[in-house]
Amino acid sequence: MAAVAAVPEPSSRVRRRHDEVRESVRDAMLVLIEQAPYNDLTVDEIARAAGLSRSAFYFYFRDKQDLLVAAAATLTDDLYGEAERWWLGEGEPRERVRAAVGGVVSIMDRHAGLFRVATEVSTYDEAVGSFWRAIIGRFVDATAEHLRREQGEGRVRVSLDPDATAEALVWGVERALYVFLSGEHRRPAKELVDTLTAIWLGALYLEEA
Fold first, then answer.
1. Strand positions, DSSP E, the chain
2. Model-level pTM?
3. 20 to 30 Å CA-CA from 78: which of 8, 63, 69, 96?
4. Cβ–Cβ under 8 Å, residues 197 and 92
């Protein structure tokens, strides 16, 4: 049997062009979901807004759910970085919790349409749901690990089960953020940050920090 020639690696220019087109498609979708319900959007509309044909769209994304996941995934590391201000930061718990919560709220507020849609679609689409549960699960696991460290250092109530507590608190924030992002008459972000900070401090720490 004749040897099969190795396929050359795509050039950096081709990869860069590929990434640029994917980004333009994501940007087009983000504009469109502010103008019409996500479920009403078609691949044709998204592709046209990005300057692509329908067939070209499928070269970059499997479907619009794949596009939605890709768009949300670009921001998850930023969210995780904000949460690390509590997990790994310096200073008193009050300052660290508030910094982490404030950072997460700020990112989600700036990208409200994307996160609102991702949360909604996760409730009925299995692919988006699996992605969303994995993202939240990452925060739950890291929070539980941090609670164990805080308990070992005598700051967090030892009566709390770290896994169950982390799950309740993180999913509670996810729901609170969804309501915040979905409301027609939203309260100021600062009020949400103040409230979530007070809840976390009161639930976790032995003394007001």
1. none
2. 0.85
3. 63
4. no
